[in-house]
Amino acid sequence: MKNFLTISLAFMMFFLLASPPAKGVELLGAGATFPYPLYSKMFYEYWRLTGVKVNYQPIGSGGGIRQLMNMTVDFGASDAFMSEEEVTRVPSKVLHIPICLGAVVLTYHLPGNPKLNFTPDLIADIFLGKVTTWSDKRIVEVNPEAKLPNIPIVVVHRSDGSGTTFVFTDYVSKVSSEWQGKVGRGKAVNWPVGLGAKGNPGVAGLIGQLPGAFGYTELVYALQNLMPVASIRNKKGRFVQPGIASTSFAATVPLPEDTRVSLTNTDAPEGYPISSFTWVLVYQEQAYKRRSIEKADELVKLLWWMAHEGQKYAEPLHYAPLSAAAVKKAEKIIRSITYNGNPIQK
């Protein structure tokens, strides 16, 4: 009987320790697919630690901003900071909290998937529809050792409102005046050529299915699908491979207090030129639409954890963690969140 009680107690202790505390609190978020692999890991680990469930819908940055504006989620997520026009349309002040950095990469589907280099003007002209075959002399010139087939380039891009698209078109707008004049930057643009797919997973999946395909996606989606990623010539004339280090180098810029900054076409010699922060977006004043102080408090605790303890999950998933300077900016922003005018973070 004594052994039975000991074993029973051991099992009870195991389940108490293995199971998260049952808080019954659920937070709802929506937005970017760019950081979705990282957010999935973060939210799972946070649930295990605290019992707070985070239901996150990866519907694209544009959808996340719309749902935040409609006050149907506790937080939005975007790789594109809100435009001035969007800021004027929200019912209350929105804060941008940086969570990590990532790289938007160019990937493709070719026989043997050779390692390729691309220059800024070449990237622009492919997406403008001016360079249409893989055997074009301009591609051959920067890839003299690659065996390039004489097949059409099938451009693939996002079909939904996307922060990844904003980052990519922001870069191309900086390096090509023709692109800036004809297409411009945005979460959704009028593409001159190509096929559209929804979300980063959709773009990666379509490229994987189509021989000759060429498109952009977040780094982790290419790596997860064993797809090649191109090196891009940066502003200093170096062909740079996307990765944690080169993405971090791109962020060595002064950060404004609201952290709304573009990192594309970096001046950093070792920096990857299509890098970006990704942000969680929340209302500064949390006392809206009958929200409880308890839910607002749990949201602030989650954000603080993501900017601190949660950073350890970034590198294993090929995202660059926040720098010490970016963490300090995030702390200041989180401390500014209020409920009925009173700071929530004590």
Order of helices and strands: HEHEHEHEEHHEHHEHEHEEHEHHEE
What's the main sheet like? 8 strands, mixed
CATH level-4 homologous superfamily of the largest domain: Periplasmic binding protein-like II
Q: What is the CATH class designation of the largest domain?
A: Alpha Beta
CATH-defined topology of the largest domain: D-Maltodextrin-Binding Protein, domain 2
Give a summary of the structure in a few sentences.
By secondary structure, the protein is an alpha/beta fold.
Describe the structure.
- The protein folds into 2 domains: 20-101 and 276-343, Periplasmic binding protein-like II (D-Maltodextrin-Binding Protein, domain 2); 103-274, Periplasmic binding protein-like II (D-Maltodextrin-Binding Protein, domain 2).
- The chain has helices at residues 2-18, 36-50, 61-69, 84-89, 120-127, 137-142, 163-175, 177-182, 199-209, 219-224, 244-250, 293-307, 324-335, and strands at residues 26-31, 53-57, 75-78, 94-108, 117-118, 154-158, 195-197, 213-218, 231-233, 239-240, 275-283, 338-339, 342-343.
- The radius of gyration is 22 Å and the shape is elongated.
- With 346 residues, the chain is of the alpha/beta class.
Write the layout of secondary structure elements.
Elements (H helix, E strand, L loop, with lengths): L1 H17 L7 E6 L4 H15 L2 E5 L3 H9 L5 E4 L5 H6 L4 E15 L8 E2 L1 H8 L9 H6 L11 E5 L4 H13 L1 H6 L12 E3 L1 H11 L3 E6 H6 L6 E3 L5 E2 L3 H7 L24 E9 L9 H15 L16 H12 L2 E2 L2 E2 L3
Parallel strand pairs: 1-2, 1-3, 5-9, 6-7, 6-8
Antiparallel strand pairs: 3-11, 4-8, 4-11, 9-10, 12-13
